[in-house]
Q: What sequence folds into this?
C-alpha cells in the first residue's frame, strides 16, 4: 500500500468518530496485551518451560509413568463418552428451544444452565446421595453388583453432568439466528421431520456442532472437584493426578502432565474458535 | 385448484391477526393480498400454506377440508420473503430437493430428476447457474431459484410472501412482468402478499385489500382503484383528498358528520365558480411530473393542501401560476359518514 493511500486512509479515518488517534490505540493495545501476558501468557510459559526443562526424553518418560498414563487414559475416556452423549442431548435441546414454542421452555433453558451455577462440590454430593451406598439407588445398585460411585462410571457421569450446558448453550444462539424459514421450506417441499433435520438443519449447523464439541472436550479435561470427589482410590483424572503429585513436590511428571493438559485444552480451543468464526462449509463467503 | 376460506380467525395472544376472514380464490387466478404491515396478510398466507394453524374457521382446497393436513401434505409451493434457499446446497440441489425427499416408491430416477431440474432452471432462465451456491447469486436470481424450487413438486397452489420485497426497483419491475407471464403460462392458482399497491394492481387478476386483520375489499385492480369500498381502501390505493363536512359542507351535505373522498385527478379547476358548491382556493404550487401536472391548492380559511392532478394538455389549455385564485369542484367523489362504512356516491 502506498504512502499516499495510507495518508488518505488516515484523513478518512479522522472524520469517522469511532476512529481513535494512534496514541490511544497504542495505549489500549498495550494495556490489553500486558494483561494477557501477565495473567495468561506467563503462567502458560512457566508450565511449558518447566515441563521441558529436563529435555524431551524426560518429558516422554514422565508421561509414561503408570499413574500419569492411567490418568490421561481416564480423562480421555470420560471425554470420549461425555462429549458424544452431550452432543446428542445438546443438539436436541437447542433444536427444540430455537425452533419451537412450547410450555416450560424457559424452565428447560434454566435447567440446562444449572451445572454452571451449582458448585461442583454440591454436584459431587448429589451423585453420592443418588448412587452412594446409602443413596437412593445405592441398595439397588449393590444388589445388582453395579459400582457407579468411586469408580470409572461415576467419573463419566459427573463429567457429563458438568459439561452438558456447553453444547446446548453454543448451539441455541446459532440456531436462533438461522431462523426456521429453511426448515419450513423443506417441509413445504414434502420433507418429513427427519428428512428436514438431517438434510437441512444438521448440515447447516454442522460447523457449530463440531465447534461446540471441541469446546466441551476442552472443558471436560478440567473437572477437578467432581473427579476428586468421585474417583476411586488409586485412579484419577489428569487434574486430580496433578494435584496429588504437587503435594509430593514439584516433580517433572507434574510439569509434564500439566503441560499435556494445557496443550490439549489449547488445541481444542483453537480448533473451536477456528470453526466458530469460520464460514459454513460450503458456498457462503 | 380453488381455495375457500370461511370465518377464519387467528390470534397471537391478545393480538387478533385475522378477524373472520371469508374469501374465495378461483382456480388458476393470480390473487394479491394487499395491505400495510401487520394487517394479517402474511398470517393468512401461512395458514393457507400450513405453516400456521387457524384458531377457528374453514379452509377448503377444491371443496376439501385441509385443516388436518400439514404443510407437507398440502401440495402447496411456498416462496419465502427472504427466499430461504438451502445455503449448503447448490442451485441444482435446491431445486431437486422436493424430488429427492419423495417417498421411495414415488421418487423419480436420478436421470428423470436431472431432466426435470434442468427444465425448471431453463424455465426461470438460470440453467447456467446450476452449480453455484445461493450466496453467489444476486437477489433476483435467488428469487427465481426459490420459485423454481417451489414449482419442482408440481404444486396445485403457489404462495409467494412479498416476492419482490427485498429487490431494488429495476429488478422488481422486471420480475413482476416475468411472474405475470409465467403465471399465464402455467396457470397455477397463485396468491402473493405485498404492501406495494402498484405491484398488486399491475400483476394480479384480483386484489384483496386487508387492514387490521379484516378484508376491506375484494375486486379487480380496476374495481379497487376506481370504486373503493371503504375509506381505508380509498386512502391505501392511490392518492386522495379528504373534505370534512365541518370544513366544507356542500359536498357532504345531508350526511351529518361525514367526509368526502376525492381523487386528485377527479377535480376540475376553473377561474369562474362552476356552481354554488365550488370551493374558492389559491394555487400554492405547480409541479410538472412527467406526463401529469400536479397542482397544490389551499382553501382561503385553511392551510391544508389539496392535491390536484391534471393532464399536460388540460394544463396547457388553461395554465396556472402560484398565487392564482381559482375555484375547484369534484367531478366524482364519495362520501363516508365518520365511523360508519355507509357510503354515498355522486357524479
A:
Amino acid at each position: 500500500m502506498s504512502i499516499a493511500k495510507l495518508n488518505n486512509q488516515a484523513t478518512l479515518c479522522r472524520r469517522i468518530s469511532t476512529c481513535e488517534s494512534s496514541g490511544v490505540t497504542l495505549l489500549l493495545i498495550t494495556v490489553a496485551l500486558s494483561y494477557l501476558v501477565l495473567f495468561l501468557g506467563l503462567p502458560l510459559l512457566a508450565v511449558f518451560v518447566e515441563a521441558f526443562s529436563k529435555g524431551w526424553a524426560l518429558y516422554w518418560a514422565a508421561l509414561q509413568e503408570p499413574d500419569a498414563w492411567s490418568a490421561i487414559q481416564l480423562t480421555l475416556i470420560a471425554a470420549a463418552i461425555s462429549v458424544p452423549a452431550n452432543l446428542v442431548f445438546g443438539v436436541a435441546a437447542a433444536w427444540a428451544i430455537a425452533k419451537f414454542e412450547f410450555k416450560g421452555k424457559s424452565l428447560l433453558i434454566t435447567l440446562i444452565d444449572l451445572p454452571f451455577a451449582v458448585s461442583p462440590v454440591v454436584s459431587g454430593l448429589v451423585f453420592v446421595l443418588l448412587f452412594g451406598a446409602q443413596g437412593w439407588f445405592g441398595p439397588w445398585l449393590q444388589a445388582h453388583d453395579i459400582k457407579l460411585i468411586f469408580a470409572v462410571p461415576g467419573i463419566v457421569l459427573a463429567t457429563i453432568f458438568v459439561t452438558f450446558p456447553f453444547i446446548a448453550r453454543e448451539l441455541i444462539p446459532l440456531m436462533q439466528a438461522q431462523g426456521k424459514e429453511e426448515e419450513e421450506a423443506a417441509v413445504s417441499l414434502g420433507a418429513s421431520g427427519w428428512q428436514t433435520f438431517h438434510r437441512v438443519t444438521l448440515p447447516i449447523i454442522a460447523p457449530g456442532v463440531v465447534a461446540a464439541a471441541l469446546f466441551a472436550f476442552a472443558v471436560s479435561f478440567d473437572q477437578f472437584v467432581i473427579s476428586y470427589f468421585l474417583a476411586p482410590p488409586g485412579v484419577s483424572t489428569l487434574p486430580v493426578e496433578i494435584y496429588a503429585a504437587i503435594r509430593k513436590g514439584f516433580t517433572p511428571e507434574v510439569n509434564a502432565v500439566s503441560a499435556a493438559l494445557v496443550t490439549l485444552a489449547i488445541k481444542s480451543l483453537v480448533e473451536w474458535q477456528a470453526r466458530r468464526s469460520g464460514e459454513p462449509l460450503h458456498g457462503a463467503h | 385448484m380453488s381455495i375457500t376460506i370461511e370465518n377464519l380467525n387467528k390470534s397471537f395472544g391478545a393480538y387478533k391477526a385475522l378477524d373472520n376472514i371469508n374469501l374465495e380464490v378461483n382456480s388458476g387466478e393470480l390473487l394479491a393480498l394487499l395491505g400495510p404491515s401487520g394487517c394479517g396478510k402474511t398470517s393468512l398466507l401461512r395458514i393457507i400454506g400450513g405453516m400456521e394453524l387457524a384458531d377457528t374457521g374453514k379452509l377448503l382446497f377444491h371443496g376439501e377440508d385441509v385443516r388436518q393436513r400439514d404443510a407437507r401434505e398440502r401440495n402447496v409451493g411456498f416462496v419465502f420473503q427472504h427466499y430461504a434457499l438451502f445455503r449448503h446446497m447448490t442451485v441444482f440441489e435446491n431445486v431437486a430437493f422436493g424430488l429427492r425427499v419423495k417417498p421411495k416408491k414415488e421418487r423419480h430416477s436420478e436421470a428423470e430428476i436431472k431432466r426435470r431440474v434442468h427444465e425448471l432452471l431453463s424455465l426461470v432462465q438460470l440453467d447456467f447457474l446450476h452449480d453455484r451456491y445461493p450466496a453467489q447469486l444476486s437477489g433476483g436470481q435467488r428469487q427465481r431459484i426459490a420459485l423454481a424450487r417451489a414449482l419442482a413438486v408440481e404444486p396445485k397452489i403457489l404462495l409467494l410472501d412479498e416476492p419482490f420485497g427485498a429487490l431494488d426497483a429495476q429488478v422488481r419491475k422486471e420480475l413482476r412482468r416475468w411472474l405475470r407471464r409465467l403465471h399465464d403460462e402455467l396457470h397455477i392458482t397463485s396468491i402473493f402478499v405485498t404492501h406495494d399497491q402498484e405491484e398488486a394492481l399491475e400483476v394480479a387478476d384480483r386484489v384483496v385489500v386487508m387492514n387490521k386483520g379484516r378484508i376491506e375489499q375484494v375486486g379487480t385492480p380496476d374495481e379497487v382503484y376506481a370504486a373503493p369500498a371503504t375509506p381505508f381502501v380509498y386512502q391505501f390505493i392511490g392518492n386522495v383528498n379528504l373534505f370534512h363536512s365541518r370544513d366544507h359542507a356542500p359536498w357532504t351535505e345531508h350526511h351529518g358528520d361525514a367526509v368526502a373522498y376525492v381523487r386528485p385527478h377527479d377535480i376540475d379547476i376553473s377561474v369562474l365558480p362552476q356552481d354554488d358548491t365550488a370551493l374558492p382556493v389559491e394555487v400554492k404550487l405547480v409541479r410538472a411530473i412527467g406526463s401529469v401536472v400536479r397542482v397544490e391548492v389551499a382553501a382561503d380559511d385553511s392551510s391544508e393542501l389539496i392535491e390536484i392532478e391534471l393532464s399536460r394538455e388540460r394544463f396547457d389549455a388553461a395554465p396556472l401560476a402560484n398565487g392564482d385564485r381559482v375555484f375547484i369542484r369534484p367531478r366524482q367523489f364519495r362520501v363516508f359518514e365518520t365511523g360508519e362504512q355507509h357510503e354515498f356516491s355522486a357524479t
About this structure: The longest helix of chain A spans residues 66-99.
